[in-house]
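Sequence only, no structure available. Ideas?
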Amino acid sequence: MQAHSIEALSPVDFDEFITYLDDHLRENGSPDVGYFQPLSRSAASFPEERKVAFRAGLEIAVGEPGWRRAWVARGAEQQILGHIDLRGHAERYAAHRCLLGMGVHRDLRRQGLGAALIEHARVWAASSELEWLDLQVLSNNQAALALYEQAGFVRVGEVPHMFKIDGHAFSYTTMTRPCSSQ
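Reply:
I predicted one. Tokens follow.
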């Protein structure tokens, strides 16, 4: 599979996106992949209340509470191969920053698609007058940590044992980078 294009997620394509996302989340906690989201194996789909907020956020102006933007990477047959999304922080006075979330289809990991998605979102954020990209990642997700560090993110903190999922404790790492290319 090769990525063909990166395009903005349209509200019209939202149901297709959720199908892709649910497939992606079914791997969470599997023996082959490990945990990459703070979700139990028994709850390995995108929660309904988050779907509603995500869809609504696509229509909210950047800078307003609840805004979100997302992009999908599509293959030659228009299938979704990966995604990246940015959303505003809930905290007041943090409108110059945004939170990043992403995922890449299992068949394309470690082939550069994640880096391309991050760069696409970074350029968009910088052109939208956002100053910082922030993210949180389960501290055991070494592949994601390496990808983010390669993309210029730095670790700024860790909450030990933040989550207790399926009987296992997981720490949570916070990372950040400026939107400018410097």
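The mean pLDDT is 91.
Hope that gets you unstuck.
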